[in-house]
Amino acid sequence: MTTPFALDGAQHAWCTELRTLTARHLRPLAARGEPGRLNRPLVRVLGELGLLSVLLPATGTVRAMDLCLLRESLARECTDAETALALQGLGAWPVARYGTPEQRSRWLPEVVAGRAVTAFALTEPGAGSDAAALALRAEPDAHGWRLTGEKCWISNAPEADLCTVFARTGPAPGARGVTAFLVPGDRPGLGGSRLDMLGPHPVGTLTFDAVPVGPGDGGGEVGGGFGVAMRTLDLFRPSVGAFAVGMARAALAAAVAHAGERRAFGGPLKDLQAVSHQLAEMVTRTEAAALLVYAAAAAYDAGEPGTAGRSAMAKLFATETAQFVVDAAVQIHGACALRHGHLLEHLYREVRAPRIYEGATEVQRTVIARELYR
């Protein structure tokens, strides 16, 4: 069993460099963006800085540990930048892993450069946690298929340039009979609308009115789409935990600074046992979450068995920990943290969604329990 006791010097240096780049180049672009809208200048600079190539390296093999350290570092400084980067990887990784040479040469250089924006279109109004229940139909015609139905809660929709779409191509129930398709955003019959969400995250719907897709649009084998979706999520699930750890670290740093400066009852807040013990709990849980994330990433990179359970534990514990840490940091700050524009007000809205997307907390517990009996 792989146990990363600590990050090495090169990894610490890289994380410091990433945080500096994020604060200097990405945070100002994020601040100029419109909340809830796709920020294309931000995505382009992610490409120019070479950060998207970490998600989609020329070798074709992405290391889960690199992905986790990248997401954690960006999240500590700018959650908008982190999210924009992660969504590029989530939508394009199926292209890199399962696409044809023609599909990879067409799309990956554009995605890595930040010129093309991607979406991962799995969830539907009636198929969220139960992804195998999806109902988007792929009906055969003389040239391939026609997609009819709706996707919902899709990041970067409806503005994405390329959507990895999962549809039912056969009558088989459940996970069988699902196929992945790579659908350009300008394909006839493809529409959608924005959704106003709690966090400043570009999310929307996609509607499919007999959208044509041909044999050249397949993302992997016909009927193998559910496996494409699950293997994509297996890679990205630990890094959702890393995103949460980054937010927890940012909230913890803010709480430590405030408790050391704010005076009440004749001294700084940190001298009050209730506050100091809360800070101790916050930092302990955050460090535990980080180690669980790193362990899951290291196990994935080493090809060890049981990575699905490890990934689920990492996402479960890290996202629940981040919720606790951010909430505690708000409590320590008091009313000032509730003011619009405050870092903790932003994190309080941002931290809620990761406990739901890419497998809700309850789903992760189910995965973990199942792994115990394999």
UniProtKB/TrEMBL annotation:
Cofactors that this protein relies on: FAD
Ranges where the Acyl-CoA dehydrogenase/oxidase C-terminal domain occurs: 223-372
Pfam families linked to this entry: Acyl-CoA_dh_1, Acyl-CoA_dh_M, Acyl-CoA_dh_N
Top-level taxonomy: Bacteria, Bacillati, Actinomycetota, Actinomycetes, Kitasatosporales
Acyl-CoA dehydrogenase/oxidase N-terminal domain mapped to chain residues: 11-114
Ranges for domain Acyl-CoA oxidase/dehydrogenase middle: 119-210
Family listed: Belongs to the acyl-CoA dehydrogenase family.
Protein name as it appears in the record: Acyl-CoA dehydrogenase family protein
Keyword terms, alphabetized: FAD, Flavoprotein, Oxidoreductase
Organism, scientific name: Streptomyces stramineus
